[in-house]
Amino acid sequence: MSDTRRRVKVYTLNEDRQWDDRGTGHVSSTFVERLKGISLLVRAESDGSLLLESKISPNTAYQKQQDTLIVWSEADNYDLALSFQEKAGCDEIWEKICQVQGKDPAVDITQDPIDESEEERFEEIPETSHLVELPPCELSRLEEIADLVTSVLSSPIRREKLALALMSEGYIKKLLGLFRVCEDLDNREGLHHLYEIVRGVLFLNKAALFEVMFSDDCIMDVVGCLEYDPALVQPKRHREFLTKTAKFKEVIPITDSELRQKIHQTYRVQYIQDIILPTPSVFEENFLSTLTSFIFFNKVEIVSMLQEDEKFLTEVFAQLTDEATEDSKRRELVNFVKEFCAFSQTLQPQNRDAFFKTLANLGILPALEIVMGMDDLQVRAAATDIFSYLVEFSPSMVREFVMQEPQQTDDDVLLINVVIKQMICDSDPELGGAVQLMGLLRTLIDPENMLASTNKTEKTEFLSFFYKYCMHVLTAPLLANTAHDKTSKGDVFFTLTCVIDVSDLQEGSAKINPVCPDNFQTAQLLALILELLTFCVEHHTYHIKTYIMNKDLLRRVLVLMNSKHTFLALCALRFMRRIIGLKDEYYNRYIIKGNLFEPVINALLDNGTRYNLLNSAIIELFEFIKVEDIKSLIAHIVDNFYKALESIEYVQTFKGLKGRYEQEKDRQSQRLNRYRRDARSLDEDEELWFNDDDDDDDGETVEKSRMEDDFSDSYGKYMEAKKGRKLLVCAQCVLFCLEQPSMLMFTLSFTAGAANGANGANNNGKSAVIPPASAAVSVNNSSSTSSVKTVALPATPVTALVGLVDYPDDEDEEEEDEEEEQSPRKRPRLSS
């Protein structure tokens, strides 16, 4: 019993004047040697750690509020609160505090707070004046009462004394009785005084007064007093709104009368704070801190009471997902769940975790799947708000549910696809809902908040799921809207679709409505989709790369460079810029092969001499390529577009690209020229090579003679076999020989009989030594006889894979070879 009685929550007030929950534990009062006094200790119920250790100071002002709260300040701007589960525990600790300070436990505040300015004026206050003397509560004295209440607001001590006086004499209810009399008599002057009095009493910031003013029999009169603001010509009709317009709807009957009363009270007090009371000035912002706390603790209590009633919540979700439920009833249910989730934000983290897990177990996500697909805009908007609460709290919980769906349902009704459909079909001209949903999708696909466990990797599994089941739905408007025709003048007519039915979306296709104009709303939607795709390029690497390549997505995106909406053209350019920024050669080859710089350069030229954001963004793209020295892109741009760009001289970007290109070309040329001779010197070298045996001994002469005879025989056989064979040369071998000056020739052996199913035998061929001055490739044919064909290396730069290229010296020989062939055939070439 004692454990339950002393169970408390510890709260601290943050800089935004909001209470932060520090944890739940059990409180005790005991002597602490280190602090040299009786102290309040709170130990966490989870692990026994110390949540609070506070010495009960004789000069600290402790306040008892709402029978279960004790509030005090320990230092400047550091307020603490203990919220007890039971009133008995609060009373027990309050008695201990009063005992230490020598106060009567019947009081609700133990000390008068004194600041520095009050200390200076303390002597001016008579010590004998225990309470402020209140004038009699009469109509004729209302002005005097109003002046008194207004005058004490600047003095904390006098505010405390006035609060005690109002409580001790039951003064509040007497004042509210005068309000009814004044209203019956239409006494405007008295009603204006009562407005000042009630407003001043609220600014006293005392929970004990709030308990009286916000009770069921007083709160509507308090609202009535606040209707008669002297600054208004006609009074407001707040009571009429609260009683007639704002009707309490029980979507499921609430049997707990205390819970129902707490809901009514919280709504009305929130209305007073947000609607009736004027926005407090800088000097008044702390006057209503207790009112904020009053609302906060009420909400915590409401959520806790509802969460504990499992029967109530089960019935809510059962009706929410029942097909027989009327639309009006379902709308009320969705709005209730939305308010329920909004109230849950007041809970401490561990309690909020338990709250959302309770909702998940009750089936909140399947219910959202149903209501988000409804035609009712209010229901969809409320469902979107609920979905945002869930995603912000736990993206992993939503992803886990979504990945289980394909086993139970069709792709068309997947929760994420329903969300994407709602984003695409947002009827708001400003796409406010679409922007919100895009942010939620971005959170769900963000790898930064995906967990990796020992058994599975959430990132890999979810991204594979998303690209398989959802990406085609997201990109369907983009692919549909970039299907275009070109006239003879090169104009682009966009096929724009306003509504796309997710049920009609298949992998890579969409059912498209009739052509619509290139309007602002559609451009905004495409911009949102491009923003999400740009995020994917930056964070998903492999999955998005595969998708872009397979769908030729960048080409379709760059069609939007022709849009009349500059912001959309910039979004398309940003997408390409992010791809190039990765400096991935796969992307670079894709861009080069598709000639995808053309629409960008056309947009730059069409923009002319206008100095605007589009101009700067395009130039920045080429400047990045130049600074990062992306060689493949530089070569492509200069080779294909430099003539169109060389006239742009107000920046040095394109001249710089040309300079980079020339430098790389010279570097490659110098590198190859070290190993290559020109064609005229090659004839002399070959003649010297074949006649270089004058000084050889007789054995070498016989050997050379035999090789020359073999050469003549095998060359003919080689040319016959050449028609059915494809000669492959490894690029790495070529590069290796080029880098080794001492190895300027290599021998490639292949078996002539392999093409006929036989193995080559008796490799008797020997390669003649080529002088270092001539770089050549010697091919050794391993058949019964051998022959050697010398091929000079090309002057073009060596890439990853190269083909054999003969020099002009061999043209005559090639012509003779081609004449011998019965049908023309391309020279064997290596390609990537």
From TrEMBL:
Transmembrane segments: none
Domain of life of the source: Eukaryota
SUPFAM superfamilies: ARM repeat, PH domain-like
Domain called PP4R3 EVH1-like: residue spans: 5-101
GO molecular function annotations of the record: protein phosphatase activator activity
Residue stretches of biased makeup (Acidic residues): 687-700, 807-821
Residues covered by the Serine/threonine-protein phosphatase 4 regulatory subunit 3-like central domain: 144-663
Keyword terms of this UniProt record: Coiled coil
Pfam family, one: PP4R3
InterPro entries: ARM-type_fold, EVH1_PP4R3, P4R3-like_central_dom, PH-like_dom_sf, PP4R3-like
Region (Disordered), start-end ranges: 687-707, 805-832
Gene Ontology CC: one annotated term: nucleoplasm
Coiled-coil regions, chain positions: 658-685
GO biological process terms on file: DNA damage response
Keyword Coiled coil attached: yes
Function in brief: Regulatory subunit of serine/threonine-protein phosphatase 4.
Family in the record: Belongs to the SMEK family.
Name assigned to this protein: Serine/threonine-protein phosphatase 4 regulatory subunit 3
The gene coding this protein: ppp4r3b
